[in-house]
């Protein structure tokens, strides 16, 4: 089971979203750990792998700021790896100025 991170105007097949990342079920403890370290709406919303979420470009800018702040904290290697993945996904969506969607799989 995974949580697909897709970019596009919508998360439905008819909108041709592009999968740019995934959060695997076994990464959920790392997501929870990051949520405890940083009060971030983005991390909180993606921590529920069973709910679809959508993030506007403005929300992604705010999320990127929160994620960058976490880079300065002392993280476990697995937490840092997940953080880098999330930063890459958010940065890519922002570079295209497209919304990001989390799709429960």
Automatic annotation (TrEMBL):
Domain of life: Bacteria
Protein name: Uncharacterized protein
Species the sequence originates in: Ralstonia pseudosolanacearum
